[in-house]
From TrEMBL:
This is Uncharacterized membrane-anchored protein YitT (DUF2179 family). Residues 221-275 form the DUF2179 domain. CDD domains: YitT_C. Keywords: Cell membrane, Membrane, Transmembrane, Transmembrane helix. Its main location: membrane. It is found in: Cell membrane.
Length: 282
C-alpha cells in the first residue's frame, strides 16, 4: 500500500513536469515537439477555440484503449491516470494563466528548457511502466515488440507530428521541432538509465557477519558470499557481494563505517539488473 501511494505521488510529479514544460515553454512559441501535446499545439494554432488540454483528452481516450488491449490493464490504468492528469493540469493552467508569453525571446532557449522539463517527466513515467498517453502509447507498443529503447520508439510517431508542424508553422519552427524530438528521445533514455543504475558492491571485512545481517535484515536485499585468498598476507577472506540502489548503498556505507572503518569495499555501477527484487527477466 505504501509503495502504491509512493508510485502515485511520483507519477503526479512527473505529470506536472510534462504539463508545465508544455504549457509554459513549448506552447507559447508554437513548438510542436512531437506527441499529442505537439499535435494539440498545432490544432490550437489553427482552431484557437479548441483548448490544448481538451484536444489531448479526446485523442488519448482512443489511444489508451489500444494500449490496454495490446500492453495490458496495469499499463493502461497508469496511462489513463497520467494522460488525464496532464490534460487536467494544462486545463487548470489555462484557466489560471489564460495568456502566456514566452519567458525568453530566444526560441531555442524556450525549446531546450521545455524539452528538459518534459523529457524528465516522461522518463519518470516510462520507468514506472506507464506512459503520458497519446503517441507515447504507440512508442511503448513498438518498444514491446522490437526492444528498441523507449526514447527511440517515441521518436518514430513524433516524426509525423514534426512534419505537420513544419507545414503549419513553417520550416524554421519545424527545424526547432526536429531538434526538440531528438533531444526529448535522448533525455527520456538518459533519465530511465539513471533511475535504473545500481551499485554492485564487494566487501571484505573482519565484521562480515554483522554486515551480512544488515544487508538481509535491514536493507531487505540478498547477498552472495565467496572466499578468496589475499596475495599480500596469503590469508583467506570472506567476500560479500550484493546489488543495491543508490539510497541503499549510502545506508550500507554508513553502517560499514560504524562497524569496521578498515573494511575493503569495491563498487561498480550496473545499468540493468534482472531477477527477483528487481526488473522482470521477461
Amino acid at each position: 500500500m505504501k509503495k502504491n501511494i509512493y508510485d502515485i505521488l511520483i507519477l503526479i510529479f512527473a505529470c506536472f513536469l510534462v504539463a508545465f514544460g508544455t504549457y509554459f515553454f513549448l506552447a507559447p512559441c508554437n513548438i510542436a515537439a512531437g506527441g499529442i501535446s505537439g499535435a494539440a499545439i498545432i490544432v490550437n494554432s489553427i482552431f484557437p477555440s479548441i483548448p490544448i488540454g481538451l484536444f489531448m483528452m479526446f485523442v488519448e481516450i482512443f489511444l489508451f484503449i489500444i494500449g490496454i488491449i495490446i500492453i495490458g490493464p496495469v499499463f493502461g490504468g497508469k496511462t489513463i491516470f497520467c494522460s488525464f492528469s496532464i490534460s487536467g493540469m494544462i486545463l487548470v493552467m489555462q484557466k489560471v494563466y489564460p495568456v502566456v508569453k514566452p519567458f525568453s525571446k530566444d526560441t531555442l532557449m524556450q525549446l531546450i528548457f521545455g524539452i528538459l522539463i518534459c523529457g524528465a517527466g516522461m522518463g519518470i513515467v516510462f520507468n514506472k511502466n506507464a506512459s503520458t498517453g497519446g503517441t507515447d502509447i504507440i512508442g511503448k507498443i513498438i518498444n514491446k515488440y522490437t526492444k528498441i529503447s523507449i526514447g527511440k520508439c517515441v521518436l518514430i510517431p513524433d516524426i509525423i507530428v514534426v512534419t505537420a508542424a513544419s507545414i503549419v508553422f513553417g520550416i524554421d519552427k519545424g527545424m526547432y521541432s526536429i531538434l526538440g524530438i531528438l533531444l526529448n528521445a535522448t533525455i527520456i533514455d538518459r533519465v530511465i538509465l539513471t533511475l535504473n543504475t545500481y551499485k554492485h558492491v564487494a566487501i571484505i571485512s573482519s565484521n562480515g557477519t554483522d554486515i551480512k545481517n544488515y544487508i538481509v535484515d535491514v536493507l531487505d536485499r540478498s547477498a552472495t558470499i565467496y572466499y578468496a585468498k589475499g596475495a599480500y598476507k596469503n590469508n583467506d577472506n570472506e567476500v560479500i557481494t550484493t546489488v543495491l540502489n543508490r539510497k541503499e548503498f549510502l545506508k550500507l556505507k554508513e553502517y560499514i563505517v560504524k562497524v569496521d572503518d578498515r573494511a575493503f569495499i569495491t563498487v561498480n555501477e550496473v545499468n540493468e539488473v534482472l531477477g527477483e527484487g528487481f526488473s522482470s527477466i521477461l
